[in-house]
Amino acid sequence: MTVDDFNWPFSIANGRIVGTVSGLDTSYQNCSGDPSSCQTLFKTINPHVIDFPAPGTGTCTNGVCQVTVTDAATITGIDDNGNQVNQVPTTKTLIGTAVVEPGFFAYQLINSSWTNNGTNNNNGNNNGPDPVLAFGGTAFNIGQSGKLYLFNLTPDVFQVSQGGAIGPFASAGSSPYVDPNKPQPSVSPLEMLTNDAAKPGSGTVWLQTSLYINTSPADANKGTPFDQQSFVNVALGGTDPNTGGLVGARRGGANVDVSYQNNCNPCNGPPTPTTTREALAFTGDIATLAGPPPNGSSVGPTFMGTANPNMVIGIDSTGTHNIGRDIPLFNPDSAAQNSGATYHVGIGALAPTVGTQTGGTVNGYAAGVINLSPGSLQGNDSPVNGLASQSSNDVTISFDATSNTLSATLVTHVLKGGGQDPGQPCVGVGCSGNQNKGGMTLVLGDPSNGTSSGRSAFIDNQHYAAIETPTQTTIQSGDGNNTLIGQPTGYLVSGDQLGVTKFFPETFGQPIAGNAPAFCDSCEFLKWGAWGARAGFQNSNTGSNGNVIPGNNVTVDVHLGWWVAGDVVSQGDLDALQTQPTTNSTASYSGHAIGTVANGLNGPIVTYVATGNMGMNWDFGSRTGDLTISKFDTSVTPGGLTFSGPMCAPGVTCGTGNNQFTTPAGNHFGGPLSVPTANATGLPTNLSSLTGSAIGSFVGPTSLPNPSGPGVIPGIPQGVIGNWNIGNGQGNNSFTYGATGIFAGSHSH
Fold it and tell me: d(Cα 438, Cα 387) in Å, to the nearest integer?
C-alpha cells in the first residue's frame, strides 16, 4: 500500500466533521515473488462521504481519543466492484484513534469489520479508502535552535488490527510474543535534534528505536524448552532540503516464529500454515506527510500545532515508495507477504534538557554470530559461524558534534568451524592461522567531512545510531573479496538507546527510576551497543593459476551482534607503568559480558542473546593477567557457564601445553579460554570441554598526580574492553555449542 495525499475542506456540524471526498486514487503493491518483482498499481476510488466525531470526542488520554463503533465514524460511498451498474452506496463503520492537540488533529481509522487475525468480514471487493488517515492543523515553526523535541508515536491502526507490533515502523508479523511476566519492550520516542544556527554545518537529525528480547526461561513443569525470540528496529534520518520534512530509513531485524502458508498441489482441504523460526532483516524508507497548505501556498506544513509540534510519519511516505520489507533468510519466496507500510501520529513536546555531545573517535571490538541461508551450504558447512574483531583497530567510530552525525567501521573475522576445534584450543581471535578465514567490513553512517546524508543520528553521548553507508561494505574470504549480490544493509546503535540491560536483571540488576542499568559501572569513558547486517555475495575462490573461480551464492545475516569501544590507552603509557612502584603496577577490573549463543545441544542450532559477569586481574609490570567470564547463559545450567584463562601482552607467552598463547603484535592483550576443572563438575562433556580465546585493550583516563614533584605520571587505566569466543566442535559434524561477545569492566579501587 502507498499513501494517498489529498487536501479537502470539511465542515463541523452538530459535533461531527462532515464532507465529500472525490478525486482519489488508491495504489497497491503487486508482487509475484521476491521484492524485486513488486510493481505499484493504481485505481481510482469513487467519491465518498465522511462523517467523523469531532476531535476530542469520546474517551481521551494525553490527547489520544479512542474512536469506537459507538462513536459511529463512517464513510459512505460506492466501491469499484468491476464497474457494476445500479450499485447501492455502502456505509462502513470505522474505529481507531483521534489525536487532538492545540492547533492539530489527526484521525487514524480502519474498517471495524477487520478482526485480530486480519480477516475482512465484508463480502465483495473492498476498494474503499481503508485504512483512513486524515489530519490537519496550524503550521509550527521549528526554527534553527539546536533544540531537542520528543515525539510519542501512536501505533499503526492496521498493525493493531493484526495483533499489534512491538513498536513503530514494524509489522505484527515480525513481532514476537511478549511475555507479560518479563521486561516489556523498550520503545523510545522519536528524538529530533534540530540544527543550530550557531554551529555552521549543523543539521537536523532524528532517531527512534524499539527492542525486545524474550528471556523467558525453560519450564520443566510444562515441558517447554528455553525459547528466546528477539526484535530490534532502528529508524533514523535527517530532513528533506526542499520541504523541511523528516526523511530516513529503518533497519534491524528479528529472530521470531512466523507462519507461512503451505504450497500444496493438490491440497487435501485448505492449505494449513506452518510455523517456523525465521531470521528477518528490515528495510524501508520513512518520511513525514505534509498537512494542508495555507492560503496562497502550494506546500503544506510538516509540523503542526500552536503549543508543540506534531506530525504524521510513516514507511512508504517518500517518493521512492520503498515500502517496509521484513526480508526472510530461510524462506526467501515469502518476501512479498512480509511487506507493507505503517503510519504514525507523532505527539511532540520540547525535551526538558539537551544531552551532552562529545565529538571525537573511539576504537574497540565487535562480535556476532552469522546465520547462513540453507541453499548456500555445501558439504559439512555449518549453518552458523562466529565473527569477532582481532584488534582495537577493527572498530572505529567517529562522532561529529557539529553536524550531529557519526561514521563507523566494524571489521570482523570468521572464527573457525562456528565454534572451536578441541585439537587446537586457541583457534579464535588473535590466533595464528585464523587471519584468512574471511569476514565482513561493515561501513556505516555519514562521511567524516561534516556532511550529512541521513545515514546517522548523534543525539547525545548515550543516544545515537547509524545505518550502512551505500557501496562501502565488503565481504572477504580467504582468497580475497567476494562479489556482492545487491547492497548489504546494516545498523549500529548504542546500548543505552536500546535499553538492552533491562532484559537481563539477573546480571545487571533492576532498572532504577525506569532507566536501564549500566552495562559497566563507573564507565563513562566507554561506549557500547548492538549491530547487525544482511549481505548476499558470490563465494568466489582463486585457482592455482590465479584465476577467479565463481562459487555458490550465499546470504548471511547477523542479528544483535555486539560492540564496545573507548579511548584506548597508548602503548607508551602502558610501557611507563612497568617502571612505576608496585602499588601502581597491578589492578583488578570487574564488569559484565554480553554475547550471542549458537546452541545445538538439543537439536537444530538456535541463536539467542545471553549475559554474564567478567573479572580480570593484570600486572602491568609482567604484562600478564587472567580473565574470567562467569554466570553466562543460565539457560544451559542453573548457575551459568564459567570460562577463564591467562592473558598476556604481545611478546609474552601465556598458557601451557596445547593452551599456549602468543598474542600478535598490537596495542592489546589476549589469551586462551576454557572451562576450569572446578567448574566443569556436573556439566555434560560437550559443555565442560569448551575452549576459546579473548582479546582486549585498556581504556579510559590514566593520569595520576606525581607524588615526587610537579606534573602527572601514568596511572592505572580505569577500564578494560574486548571480545571473546567459546565453543566446541569443528564444522557441522561435532559442533553443539558456541558463543561470542564483548566484555567491559572498570578498575576496582
Answer: 9
Q: What is the pLDDT of residue 428?
A: 38
In contact, 614 and 628? CB cutoff 8 Å: yes
Lowest mean pLDDT among 129-138, 353-362, 513-522, 724-733: 724-733
Task: Kindly calculate the radius of gyration of the chain based on its CA atoms and give it in whole angstroms.
Answer: 28
CB atoms within 10 A of CB 515: 11
354 against 577, higher pLDDT: 354
Q: 404 with 458: CB under 8 angstroms?
A: yes
3-state secondary structure of 333: helix
Over 50: is that where the pLDDT of 365 sits?
yes
Confidence band, pLDDT 50/70/90 cuts, at residue 209: very high
CB-based contacts of 112, cutoff 8 Å, min separation 6: 69, 92, 93, 94, 95
Q: What are phi and psi of 153, to 5 degrees?
A: -95, 130
The answer to whether 720 and 698 are in contact (CB under 8 A) is: yes
CB-based contact 450:201 (threshold 8 Å): yes
Residue 91 in contact with residue 137, Cβ under 8 Å? no
CA-CA-CA-CA torsion sign (194, 198, 203, 208): negative
**Residue pair 589/613 in contact by the 8 Å Cβ criterion:** no
Which pLDDT score, from 0 to 100, does residue 2 have? 36
Question: What gap in Å lies between CA 55 and CA 103, rounded to an integer?
Answer: 11
Averaged pLDDT for residues 365-381: 81
- pTM: predicted TM-score of the whole model, two decimal places: 0.89
Q: CA 185, CA 252: separation in Å to the nearest integer?
A: 15
Distance CA 194, CA 586 (A): 47
Q: Distance (Å, rounded) from C-alpha 188 to C-alpha 351?
A: 13
* Cell numbers placing 503: 532484559
Query: What are phi and psi for residue 346, nearest 5 degrees?
Result: -100, 115
**Once rounded to an integer, what is the mean pLDDT over residues 174-180?**
89
For residue 497, the tally of other CB atoms under 10 A from its CB is 24
Phi/psi class of residue 583: alpha, beta or left (left: φ > 0; alpha: ψ in -120 to 50)?
alpha
pLDDT-derived band at 432, boundaries 50, 70, 90: very low
Q: Please check whether residue 75 is in contact with residue 96, taking contact to mean a CB–CB distance below 8 angstroms.
A: no
DSSP 387-407: EE-SSGGGEEEEEETTTTEEE
Q: Tell me the per-residue pLDDT of 628-664, one tens digit each, with 9 for 90 and over.
A: 999 999 888 888 999 999 999 998 888 777 667 777 7
595, 631, 529: which is closest to 740 by C-alpha?
Answer: 595
How far apart CA 355 and CA 310 sit, in angstroms, is 22
Q: What is the three-class DSSP state of 696?
A: strand
The partner residues of 26 in beta bridges, in order of sequence, read 43
Among 91-105, 108-122, 366-380, name the most confident range. Answer: 91-105
| Cα distances (Å, whole numbers) of residue 622 to 54, 173, 648, 649 | 77, 56, 9, 9
